[in-house]
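Example with several molecule types.
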Amino acid sequence: MATRGFFGKQRDPALEARIPPGQALTEDFPVLSAGPTPRVETSSWKFTLKVGPRAVKAWTWDEFHALPQTKLTRDIHCVTTWSKLDTHWQGVMVDDLLGDAGIEPPTGFTLAHSYDGYSTNVPTPDLVGGKAMVATIYDGLPLTPDHGGPARLLVPHLYFWKSAKWVNALQFTERDELGFWELRGYHAYGDPWREQRYTGDP
Amino acid sequence: MTPTTPLLWQTATLERVVPQTARVSSFFFRLSQPFRHVAGQHVDVRLTAPDGYVAQRGYSIGSGPESEPGVIELCIEELEGGEVSPFFHEVAKPGDEIELRGPLGGHFIWTEPMGGPVLLIAGGSGVVPLMAMARHRAALGSQVPMALLYSARVWDELIFREELLQLHGARNGFDLVLTLTRDAEKREGARGRRIDSAMVMEAIDQFPEPPKLVYLCGSNAFVAAASDAVIAAGIAETAIRTERYGG
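Resulting structure tokens for the full complex:
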């Protein structure tokens, strides 16, 4: 249904192919979260890999930085309809975390947990094979608390709520267990190209 | 709160436009598929250009669930250089149809069984979903203590000002503390500084116990500063729910 009198902004055809349906380009980096921004000190920061309830490996801030550091440049897409192109990140690939822990992906499902109690579910295949990292640097600078610092998950091919801020654990689960927003009406998978915004979207 | 069937797009007809401030108007839409929302929820609005290009934006519902059956009120601020808000302010006329879907959101919501006391803190147009909560409480005749701490730049940018003053004047457990950060004139009953912990304490001093739920809505900078003030006032971080207007 065309809307009377609506034409939209001038669009750049070169960029249009990179913008999923219903999204609009933003130049700034909006901040969204369910509650106040937690202040996490790197001196007490810890990141844990869990299989079910069992912790299999944990890293301090220094140990984490001794792991291979990778840079990624990716487009990101927020469910609130902004997209941002060519964002620059640095951190540790989930592949390298598994490698350092000496394990293969043990189950098909993962829950990411955060310092503020937030969680989000991502299928394990979407986290490995060079697809996702735990990022500590954005645009060349330490990730600020507003944007999830000291560390956030980065799963850029899914809507950005999956890239959990203030992340402190990845937990492999036997079943697909829904996370915080997924229990509150948001889609279990969240593919921006299929516009999987809300529960029930195909 | 978790629908298992897809939320379908529906057409909605613009019934009337009511200016609230110089830059904010209320747009009342009649739903072709009426729904009942929960206070605090939003809808996604979809506009389609002749070439098929689609723009989507989320807008909080300002009306209470009981306000007007089959009609929702969206308050839209005209943003310079925007794509969707200028359409509503400069092009849309009563009788026009748009598409929307909802109601959406299962976190930044308040229902009476969730209880209280409830502290609402709004910056600018962040008052909209909180107004739905205040209207819901009023429509129910609820006894749950509620207070709204509302910050705007100047007196004439206070959205819903007269209705809020009336709700406050009814003296039935709804408190209102207004603060203006840029108004040159002194306004009776309005503070003249940014929100701080002393103002939070003042807003909740009629509560019989500390607030069980705190809802913060506004720009990111506002929400960050207001959460610091709430935490400094000794309120548990876990009580705080935020909604930030991202841009």
